[in-house]
TrEMBL record:
Protein's name according to its UniProt entry: Triosephosphate isomerase
Organism ancestry: Bacteria, Pseudomonadati, Bacteroidota, Flavobacteriia, Flavobacteriales
Gene giving rise to this polypeptide: tpiA
Gene3D superfamilies referenced in this protein's UniProt entry, alphabetically: Aldolase class I (3.20.20.70)
Compartments reported by the entry: Cytoplasm
Residues binding substrate: N9, W10, K11, G173, S213, G234, G235
Family (UniProt): Belongs to the triosephosphate isomerase family.
Pathway: Carbohydrate biosynthesis; gluconeogenesis; Carbohydrate degradation; glycolysis; D-glyceraldehyde 3-phosphate from glycerone phosphate: step 1/1
Entry EC no(s): 5.3.1.1
Chief site of localization: cytoplasm
Zinc-finger in keyword set: no
PANTHER family attached to this UniProt entry: TRIOSEPHOSPHATE ISOMERASE (PTHR21139)
């Protein structure tokens, strides 16, 4: 059975003390019987302390990005080796904010995927269409191309280290959520696309998260859909009570 995951993308929120406080709330309040694998993605500067704070728990840590080069003159950037050196095992790549604000193309993201896999990091690969694509009926094409251009160059064995996160851009941070039916329709399409490009076992085993304004009051319905294996949560991951309600909605 494929893994259920709820991941919190903290973006550029929470200083050192606030990171510790939220982690402590999660550590003490997430019920032991929780089904989902919980992952949190604090900012780079708080990754090492997060790993330390969570070392005796089941909560995993993800970086929000990495640079594709091994090292070098890239002022302000962080390498995969630096991330793994503090004990982080996961990385979010291809987030729509990285694509839109920091001009990350599918080719750049593909190169980041290679670097992450080379360092044995699990990649949470984000992709999703913009509002104009959905309105023009082009959303399936966009999603298929993002997968093909950013990810499908990997080898079959690499899929054990990949989690997909479908995040329609029009639903991120907007309060607008894809309906559970829209999410299911796209997740089914994504699984089918993986099946055609690779094989049935890979398609059935890959965890596909939904992201885009998942909140405590809509999580259960979205997660109830057969091809939705959990969520990537932005805003609602910054509050322990909301995030735990979402985590326990699986
Ligand atoms: C995200 O940024 O990945 C996200 C899903 O954000 P939000 O939940 O705030 O829409």
């Amino acid at each position: 059975m494929r893994k259920k995951i709820v991941a919190g993308n903290w973006k550029m929120h929470k200083n050192a003390a606030q990171t510790k406080e939220l982690l402590n709330e999660l550590l003490t309040q997430i019920p032991a019987e929780t089904v989902a694998q919980v992952i949190v993605a604090p900012t780079f500067i708080n990754l090492a302390s997060a790993v330390d704070n969570l070392k005796h728990s089941n909560i995993a840590v993800a970086a929000q990005n990495l640079h594709q080069a091994e090292s070098g003159a890239f002022t302000g950037e962080i390498s995969a080796e630096m991330i793994t050196s503090v004990g982080v095992k996961n990385v979010i790549l291809g987030h729509s904010e990285r694509r839109a604000i920091f001009n990350e193309t599918d080719a750049i993201i593909a190169s980041k995927v290679n670097t992450a896999l080379k360092h044995d990091l699990t990649v949470i690969f984000c992709f999703g269409e913009e509002l104009k694509d959905r309105q023009s009926g082009n959303h399936f094409n966009i999603v298929e191309n993002q997968l093909k251009d950013g990810l499908f160059h990997i080898e079959a064995k690499d899929w054990a280290k990949v989690v997909l996160a479908y995040e329609p851009v029009w639903a991120i941070g907007t309060g607008e959520t894809a309906s559970p039916e829209q999410a299911q329709e796209m997740h089914q399409f994504i699984r089918e696309t993986v099946r055609k490009a690779f094989d049935s076992d890979i398609a059935e085993d890959v965890t596909i998260l939904y992201g885009g304004s998942v909140k405590p009051d809509n999580a259960k319905e979205i997660f109830s859909k057969p091809d939705v294996d959990g969520g990537l949560i932005g805003g609602a991951a910054l509050n322990a009570k909301d995030f735990i309600t979402i985590v326990t909605s699986i």
